[in-house]
Every structure is written in C-alpha cells, then in structure tokens.
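User: what does the whole thing look like in 3D?
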Amino acid sequence: MTDTTRVIPDRLQSPLQRRVKSWESLLLAVAVAIFIVNSFMSPYFLNAWNLSDMTFNFTEKAMIAFAMALLIIAGEIDLSVASIIALASTAMGAAVQVGVGTPGLVLIGLGVGLLCGAFNGVLVTRLGLPSIVVTIGTMSLFRGISYIVLGDQAYRGYPADFAFFGQGYVFWVISFELVLFAVLALIYFVLLHKTNFGRAVYAIGNNPVGAEFSGIRVARVKFILFLLTGLMSGVAAICLTSRLASTRPSIAVGWELEIVTMVVLGGVSILGGAGSIPGVVIAAFVMGLVTFGLGLLNVPGIVMSIVIGALLIGVIALPRLWDKWRAHAAKG
Amino acid sequence: MSRHVLMSREVLLSGAILVLLALIASRFPAFITPANLANVFNDTAPLILLAIGQMIVILTRCIDLSVAANLALTGMVVAMINVALPGLPVPVIIACAIGIGALLGMFNGILVWKLEIPPIVVTLGTMTIFRGTIFLLSDGQWVNSHELSDPFKAFPRAEFLGLPVMSWITIAAVLFFSLVMSRTTLGRAFYAAGGNPHAATYAGIDVGKTQFWAFTISGALAGLTGYLWVSRFAVAFVDLAGGFELNVVAACVIGGVAIMGGIGTVAGAMLGALFLGIIGNALPVVDISPFWQLAISGAAIIIAVALNTQANRTKGRIILKRAEHAS
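Assistant: Here's the predicted 3D structure for the full assembly of 659 residues, as structure tokens:
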C-alpha cells in the first residue's frame, strides 16, 4: 500500500508543488468557513479577548508540530513528545523546590527536552531502530520517570515572573505564546523551505538511499531533527507549565496524537517526502477554531475529538475518493 | 535461517520470563504458586487477546492504534444491550461483541484497503472517533455493576477445570490463531503481504484485502475482549482501557514482532504480553510503587527492540536494510 502511493521523485517539481498549494488553499477555505460558522453560531466568538484565548488551544502543540513536521517529512516520527513535556515539567518543578529562579528553570526545561531528543536520536540513528517503536518506548519511559518522581503528587510554587511565558501578553491581546508561535513558524519556514538543510530533509523523506549516495549525511540530519523535536517539547513544556502553574505526571497526556493529527492535517505526508510549514500553521488554526467554537457551544471535549478524528480521516479520504470517482467516470 | 532465529527468540523470551519469575520467587516464593500464576495469566488475558490481533496487523506492515477504543466502545454497547435486555443469553452477547468489534475493525480495514490511507492515520482517527462515540452513546454516564445482569457478570469468572472461563477463551484463541497462522492460506498470506508486498502481489495475494482481514481479526478480538473486560470488572465508561493500545504494541514488540512486517508469531505475542503482565503483577508484591510500571515497560520495549534488531543484523546488505528502516 505504501509503495504505490509514493510520489515519483523525477516529477517532484511542478505537480507536487501544485498539489501542496491546492491543499493549503483547501485547508484555508475550511478555516475561513469554520470561522464564519462560529461567528454566526455564538455571539461570544467575535471578541478580541475570546479569540486571543482561542490561540492557547494550539500554540503549544503547534510549536512541537513544526519540528514534528520536519521529522515526518524525513520519514521518521516521535510519539514521545508529550512525555518529554511531562519529564521537562517535572524537572522544572523539582528545581523550584530547591529554589532555582526563572532563568534556571528555562535552561532546565530546554536542557531536558534536548537530552530526551538526543536519547531518541541516538537510538534511531546509531542503533538503527525504527522510530515508531523507539518513541512508543520512550513515551512510556519519560512519563514513567515523572510518575516515579511525583506519584500522585504535584509540584507548585513557581516564581511569579515565570508566569509570563504562559500567561503574559506582549501587546494588548497578543500573548507571549502567540508571538513565540509566529516567530517559530517563521524560523521553521525558512529552515524547511529556504535552506540546504530543508532540501536534505525532503530528499531523505523521498529516497533515503538516494540521499545517502548524493552525499547527505542522513543519520546526522535525522539526529538533528530529533534534537529539534525534543527542544520544541522543552519550549512547550515551559509555556504549558507556566500557564498551568503546576506539574502533575499526567500533564499533556495524549498530546502526541493531537500533534501528529495537526501535522497530517497540514498536508504533511505520513509516508515522508512532502509537506509544508504554512500547511501546518493553517492546520493549527483549524484545530484551534474547531475546539474553541465547539467549546463556546458547550460541546464536551470528547465530542470535539470525534470532529478532529473525522477531519483527519475525511480530509485525506475525500480527495482520494474524488480521484477514484473521476478515474471511474473516465473509464466508464 | 529465519525459522531458526524465530525459534531462538521465543526460547530467549521464555528464558527471560523464567529468570524474572525466579528473581521474584527468591524473595517471595508465594508468587510462583500455581494458583497465583493462574491469576497472573487471567489478569493478562485481555492483553494476550489484543496482542494476537495486533501481531497479525503488524505482520502486514500496518498498525492498529484503535484497539483499546474499540474494546471500550464494544464493551459499552454490550453493557447497554444487557441493561436494555437483561434476559438476552450470554452467548448472544458474546456474538454481538465479536460482531461489533469486527465491524469497527472492518471500517479501519476498508479505509486502508480501498482508499489506501496510511494505517497509522486511519487508526489514530478512528481511535478518537470510537472514544467520542462512547460518550455520545452513554451521555458520559457509567454503566455500573448493579445495572448489569448476573449471568453477564458471572460468565468470565466461572471456573472450569480450575481455570476461569476467561483464561480458557484466551488459551483457545492462542491455539486457534497459531493454527490459522501456520496452517491456512490466509495465515500465510499475512506473512507474505508483510514480508514482501510486491512478491506477494505477483504470487496472487491481494495485499490490501489481506490487510483488511488483519484489521477485521484485530477488531473482532478487541470486541471479544471488550465484553470480557466489562463483565469482569462490572463497569463500562468512556475512558475504559485508556492508553491500553500502547501496552498492546509493547507486548508485540517485546514478543519479537517486527514493526516493519513479516516477522512474528502468536506464541511470541503471548509471551510478550505475559512478560508485561508478570511485571505488572509482581511490582506490588515486591513492594515497588506501581508508579514504576510505566517506566519499566518503556525500558523493556526499548531493550527488546534493540535486541530484535541486533538479531536480524547478521543478514548483511546494510545499505538496503537501512533504506527499509527509513521508509
């Protein structure tokens, strides 16, 4: 099933480009439609502060989704991201108990994220293990360590100035997280679409053997991608911990699936080799708008997950059904 | 060659389980009494049943992340059927459970087969859809013990020749699927479709259809487990068995099932599940906080997959192998 649907590399340029573009415009249309429907459905939707609150639904997840997008384009996956958040948050919480200040906490959060990413990266690139199994393992391992440390307890008592990352506003309704989201989106856009490194990521995803033979250090690029994903999980851990002002071992549970959904919804091929950062950005907004709009209508969170799940399958199935129907019509 | 490796892997895992039991027994001899071991087996029964289905799915180069949600949804539906029609005999309930589970599995299978959507995406989506459906059906309410009929609750616990029915069902499933995998064309097709899809196609095997049947079997087993789980614990709710799909994948990986498809046995999956089950049951006995379990099973997965990959490495042609890993 996988091999037949792969894009043939020598046709990479124009058809693929067109397809990616049409995907993003489709997604954008969906986002605009949801926005309009929402504003008709609820009188509270079109309010600057409510919309600003809405962005917290996706900013932290999207930060990780950017790095995850690169990783998936390169043909790997990291399911341990939510557990890295838990472990980084636990480490920061433990540091608070011994009186570490905000700069130290930030360093610890980023450091734990990097270490976890390096651990995944070594297992995948050095030992040649499949990333999906490795990260299912580290997913249990990292969160498991949080459970060993915390059990059913929680860390609190974060310093007052630490609250800025998750609760602070830079200007009017523009939160710090939203600004960070925009900056990271820009950085990842440049990294993926404007640098040699980004071209290498696509090349590896399309044809790892070919990439290796054309002089790309496949293992090193993949290792860097795992590092980046770990680092972004550390950044998200700082934001989320600051926003919640407490750490439990169950923090961010299930996020890995929402993040993968966001990436796939954004048009990144789960088989690797195709995808774009603007797609992921729009997908983040779509998911944020859906959850927020349904929330305003008092729809419970679990029902929203049906919508997200159906969106994930539907958005991939419909174009394929359409292609099949057209091929069928052309034949008959 | 590969047969030799397979055999040694299961022997290795059996050895690891025996060492584990010996370590526990050296301090807590009561743990390895037959009665307690039977208890451990019965506790692990759901994991074994799901691991068999998952193994078949992974053999065909797919993955089924929706098994736990399928289990919970089917469990909720049969519980509600039981509440609505308390007189319905248990065999009918079981047939319903298997049927509903198989239908949910077929839904996954159709999407993978006919629309060629990557299985991880399909089952990620259906996982959340199934969970949400439980909420819609039950309105977020629990079905509690006193609402369920007595025969419904008693069936899996009924003793037969010293073992609960739940254990017997599991043993029967292990034997049945061992035969299916080794003695039927469908069983061989699972290995062929995963081992080399192109060759399988040239040999006249419809790879997509084979994957469809793998998902159907996985779904049917999840449905059966759904009834057993709900009746044994006498409760059904939205988050039942939440996150259990990862334990199931872990059991398969520890049991030597290759995530790239084509390699794995029913016995391996069962041993992998038992390994996790013994650790889970032993932790409270040896007075380690149950909070350690998650980290231990994570470490076990990583070590197991590292060992599996090392065992396969002797084949050579490193560059090609790497390409397989990456794609």
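In plain terms: Chain A touches chain B through 58 residues (CB under 8 Å). Residues 2-322 of chain A form a domain with the ABC transporter involved in vitamin B12 uptake, BtuC fold (CATH 1.10.3470).
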